[in-house]
Amino acid sequence: MFLDLDEQLQIREQKGLLRTRAVVESPQSTYITINQSEYLTFISNDYLGLANHPQLIEAVCEGAHRLGVGAGASHLLHGHFSSHHELEEVLAKFVGFPRALLFSTGYMANIGIVTALVGRADAIFADKLNHASLNDAALLSRAQFIRYPHLDLAMLQQRLAASRAKRKLVISDAVFSMEGDQAPISELIALCEQYHAMLLLDDAHGFGVLGKQGRGSLFASLDRETHSPNVIYMATLGKAAGVFGAFVAAQAEVIETLIQSARSYIYTTASPALLSHALLTSLKLIEQEEWRREALMRNIAQLRQELQSLPWQQLVSETPIQPLLVGDNDQAVRLSDALRKCGILVAAIRPPTVPQGTARLRISLSALHQPQDIERLAKALRKLAAS
After folding, report:
1. How far is it, in rounded angstroms, from Cα 313 to Cα 383?
2. Sheet arrangement for strand 344-345
């Protein structure tokens, strides 16, 4: 019955595209334990090093004692706890919007936002290298799905101008998860205002890292403290914030529409309230501990300097995501495997996550990486390049 699935898996393995899972036996940090062996890791999205912070651990325990473990119900059926509500209010203020709404994951947030706001009579305009969750959301919405070349705003403008859709929605990563580059946010906002379009920004990899006090890509790109009413802002809470979940911030009518219509919000059990309690502490650390972002920026500069002599292209990135373009799938996997044998974890990213012919090593940096950690990675890569 499942022979065709087995054949497909074999083909995937032959193409070097079969994915496997490692079982981590330690807290998330710059060093993790797998199968009782310690590895220096450049894979985690724990950009600020908060995932194992003692204050967050203490806050989780306190939240569990006060609010229990499971939420027990959806937000609309008495699963909406005081810590959820407080976190939404704090997040809205932190990112400068009237209201915010929690989702269990960034994937669920994007699905919920897009499918609640647009439908068959509408059009979605999407950057070609957007995250899979945005693409899936566009397809589920049944709106016309129009993609434009990566960061090509001239093409986006042409397609916006030609559209006769009832409602227009531009969707874009703020920091592109496999490239590390950033969307031109102020220009996107100007286009959306000109053509009466909404703009959904997925700032999963910018929130906590970029902008004043880590308030995200909007604050890194714009001088003003108030945002265009056209903007809908989504960010995740399991990367730089070190915990779990996601939120969307926007005008009050947008948030109320999502509460009434976003299926991935309505028809799921609320995330544990203890996590929201911990995230209140996380936000304080993000806001107050500027040294984490300063250390992260130093690490980015050091890595780019150390890797200049390598034969593989460094993509242009000023973020913690630092890709090395290898090209060939098998070579990317071989390099990742060789690094693992040296006790260093770096992910090999292959199609369909990235376009054909652009397989890469995706180096992900943390504020807690030390100069000697980066030197160790660079030395290993130089040795592999010479072999």
Report:
1. 16
2. 31-34, 37-41, 344-345
**pTM > 0.70: yes or no:** yes
pLDDT in tens, 136-169: 999 999 999 999 999 999 999 999 999 999 999 9
Domains of the chain: 16-48+290-386 (3.90.1150.10), 54-288 (3.40.640.10)
Q: Structure tokens of 58?
A: 């203490």
Mean pLDDT of 179-197: 96
The alpha carbon of 333 is separated from its chain's Cα centroid by a whole number of angstroms, namely 23
pLDDT digits (tens, 9 = 90+) for 341-355: 999 999 999 988 899
Q: Output the CA torsion sign for 172, 236, 253, 212.
A: negative
Cβ pair 323, 363 in contact under 8 A: yes
Q: How far apart are CA 88 and CA 366, in angstroms?
A: 26
Token output for 88: 């939404």
Within a 10 A sphere around the Cβ of 13, how many other Cβ atoms?
11
